[in-house]
Design brief:
The protein starts with a strand and ends in a 5-residue tail after the last strand. By secondary structure, the protein is of the alpha/beta class. Mean pLDDT is 85; it is low at 186-191. A hairpin with a 4-residue loop joins strand 7 (138-141) and strand 8. The chain is built from eight helices and twelve strands.
Amino acid sequence: MTKLLIIDDDSSLTENLSLFFQQHHFDLICANEPQQGYELIGLESPKLVLLDVMMPGIDGFTLCKQIRQAYTLPIIMLTARGRLEDKVHGFELGVDDYLPKPFEPAELLARVQALLRRSFSQEQSSTEQQGVLFFAGLAIFSAQQIVKVDGENVHLSGMEFHLLKALASNPGKVFNREQIIGVVKGVEVDLFGRSVDILLSRLRQKLNDSVSSPRFIKTIRGVGYTFIATPL
């Protein structure tokens, strides 16, 4: 389940919200003291923080500023103070959303889900801009020409890397031999006919990818090859 963190001194509220979010497949971790909440961010790595404004010791605005100095995760501020200047101050500190108390748990859930979708979309966009492709068991770093299988570096030739990247950039698309020749032509040497099959066989061996039970590249008999790994 996706981890969330709520930092609020109202233990009754945090317990009730924890049960509610669990019913919707979220693990809501509760902290009733500001410093404890800050420490839990580093220990639990939540995807999002729900932060109360009015707390003893350290108020929510101060804690938000402290969090923003070290973390970029989304923050929704919860407060009984609905003044406009408080909202503006919160947004200036880096709050992503603002929900006045009292609120319906369903509305909070909807805001959490929307913010997580936006955050995930931004992460994907950033990853794509950096030229990184992530799949189950496989990571391809285009700029560095690095490939990792199950977390371990795999050394590929320039031709093998370009072929893998082309296949992985078009999951589900079937490439015939002529298309593969077009992808890798000019990288090292020209390919002709059956040499494509040899190249694919060598690539599969390095990826520890079985022909009979493929994880990454599947042979479509009489047609060509297609990339089948699950994107992350």
